[in-house]
Amino acid sequence: MIRLRLLGAGTLLMLSLAGCGPAGAGGGGAPNGTLLFYDACSNCHASDARGTDLGPDLTVQASDMTPDEIVDVILNGAGTMSPLDLTEDEADAVAVYLIETFL
Ligand code: HEC
Helix or strand or coil: residue 74? Predict the structure, then answer.
């Protein structure tokens, strides 16, 4: 009887852990650069990084930037781009995704 109840609680806990967290937030895993880029960057830079009316084409503008420089832009802003509300780990994941995928 007691054992059965414990089993039930364990299953419930596992289910709620598996369903947790938006892009990069919580869950304990590494932040997901792809999802974070879509979430935090694509409305201005487009999902293919080629820019919109709100932000420049990063395949041009960021082509010579290092990961550290891109992290700095994300956390501190640059020119007319405001700093974004990401952690350093999240910014890092976005920078890696950006460079590996588009630059
Ligand atoms: C609200 C719109 C907006 C969002 C959201 C945004 N950017 Fe920008 N970004 C800009 C604008 C505008 C510029 C051009 C700034 C300038 O040159 O004055 C820019 C410039 C940049 C640059 C080039 C900076 C430089 O020094 O030339 C990088 C790299 C960049 N953005 C990366 C990102 C990344 C990565 C994200 C998501 C984490 C992001 N941006 C989200 C608007 C945005």
Answer: helix
pTM as predicted? 0.81
Task: For ligand 1, pick from 44, 60, 90 the residue to mutate: most ligand atoms within 8 Å of CB.
Answer: 44
Q: What's the DSSP call for residue 83? A: P
Please report the domains of the chain, with CATH numbers, ordered by start residue.
30-102 (1.10.760.10)
Annotate 28-53 with DSSP letters as a single string: SS---HHHHHHHHTHHHH-TTSS-BT
Contact at 8 Å (CB) between 24 and 90?
Answer: yes
Tens digits of residue pLDDT in 24-66:
455 568 999 999 999 999 999 999 999 999 999 999 999 999 9
